[in-house]
Amino acid sequence: MNIHATLATLGLEQRETDLYLALLKLGPSSIRDIASSAGINRGTSYELLKGLQKKQLVTYYPKGKRRFFCAENPEQLLVLAKEKSDKLQHSIDVLRHEIVPDLSSFQSNDSGVDVRYYEGDDGIEFVLKDILSTVGQSEDQSYSVYSSRLLRKHLYRPFPNYTRQRVQKGIRVKVIAIGEGGEDAPLAERKWIDVSGQEKSASYLAIYPPKVVMISLTERDYPTAVMIESQGIAMAMKFSFDALWQRL
Question: Among 30, 47, 205, 244, whose CB has the most other CB atoms within 10 angstroms?
Answer without folding.
Answer: 205
